[in-house]
Design a protein that fits this description.
Elements lengths: L2 E4 L2 E4 L4 E7 L8 E7 L6 E6 L5 E3 L7 E6 L4 E6 L8 E9 L2 E4 L3 E6 L1
Parallel strand pairs: 2-11
Antiparallel strand pairs: 1-3, 3-8, 4-5, 4-9, 5-6, 7-8, 9-10, 9-11
């Protein structure tokens, strides 16, 4: 499967963005999907994920603000980001995992100004 991330941009603190991760094929019930971000000078970290069984998990730093969801018909996973903070700034990547196999989409840049 190939992944295409989009939806990044520049937003003021307190604003919202929705990221999209479009897959080239069916992904639900097969792959674990995750949104990761990499801030300048920092390691890539998991922000939100949804397992093939539909279980969602979030980093503590985004709980209550970010929501991961999916559209099976569109083979797309979304990351709704509300109440954005400057520390949410970074390049966001989507990732799919199935057993030992994983795929990364290209990143989409999110910049939150204070």
């Amino acid at each position: 499967v190939q992944l295409q991330a989009s939806g990044g941009g520049l937003v003021q603190a307190g604003g919202s963005l929705r990221l999209s991760c479009a897959a080239s094929g069916s992904i639900f019930s097969i792959y674990d999907i995750g949104w990761y971000r990499q801030a300048p000078g920092k390691q890539r970290e998991l922000v939100a994920g949804i397992t093939s069984g539909g279980i969602r998990n979030y980093a503590d730093s985004v709980k209550g603000r970010f929501t991961i969801s999916g559209d099976n018909a569109k083979n797309t996973v979304y990351l709704q980001m509300n109440s954005l903070k400057p520390e949410d700034t970074g390049v966001y990547y989507c990732n799919s995992k199935h057993g030992p196999f994983q795929t990364w989409g290209q990143g989409t840049l999110v910049t939150v100004s204070s």
